Amino acid sequence: MTLRLALLALSTTLSTQIAIAANSNADHTKDVSLYRRKLAEYVRAHNAYEKRAQPYWQSVTEKRSKRLAKRLHGASAKLSDYVLKQPPAYTGPPEPQAPQTLPSNIKTIPVAADFLRHAKEQFNFTPDTPQSENDYKRAYVKAALAAGLTPEQCVRIYAFESGGDGTYDVQAGLEYKKPGARAITTALGYNQLLGTNSVEMLAEAGDEFVATLHKNADAAHGSRKDALLRKIVILKKMIAFSRSVPDRWSEHARLADTPKGLGIHAVNLDVDIGPLLQVRKLLTSVEFAKAHGYVRPLSAAELEMMNLTGDGNGFDMVLMPSDMRAKVPTSNFFQRGGYERNPVASLNDTVAKLFAATNAKMDSESELVGAKNLAALFETLR
Q: Domain segments of the chain: what residues?
């Protein structure tokens, strides 16, 4: 009798599990069917949008090339040299999220843990992270002052890029510790260097960084000196990799997306090397402006335009007369992907609005603790 009851219970359990599985399969089929229907609607709407968007962005690229050619011949850009319409907006349904059982096409943005893992695997490099945030800030301030950058430039750009209280390892999308926050780009640190920036900085200015580390090693003793000398050997390997392709942004971007490139990005987390890269990014823009005959110091907002959009595009905005700034859309100074990912640019859709919004954000976030600490260090160390 006991065996019969046990078999009956087992039969009931199996029947229940089969029914649950059947319902689950039915639900899954329904979810997949709904996803595919929504995906088809999205694709139709997005294809129609692309027919308007692609010609627009192609026109932006062509006009930008023509402006560059004019400037190379000493001519100034006119209003007609810019696309004066705003980019078409996508108003269709959002891209649906695939059920968990289906593979996703969404690429995961690497974060600090990934940079550190690749640095260890590819270069046997583990950054010397600062014991405190002020230790990194102090190294950053010393590097900035040595490079001739002003406190106003550095503090206000830090406030704008890091949210006013960001840490040395702050990453775009993770500035504010919100539940479910995700990285939106590889942009890292006080001045938000992309992975491509890190590769490019090593390719173009790596010898400067090596020279600074040698100088620091000469002044050090014991284990500190040994650590710096080992770091120089590793840094030279990273520089060699960064220089293994032609000195072009597209080539550096390709390297930055490899395991070695991701490992290179981890140098921003090192208290000896990271501040040098963060400062060098701004100094490159200052040198670009000077090389093109701009003699007065760049304001923080002007320098940020170059940091945000690249030297050529940012300098284009710096040179623009004020009466034109209110008429020229910001889309003229971004690559399409960067513009569509950057709500600051799309919401403040003319050059005048972008400058105003940048200054306003700098004003407000310079009042936060991190920015005030950075400003105080400038006062102490200069």
A: 48-91, 112-381
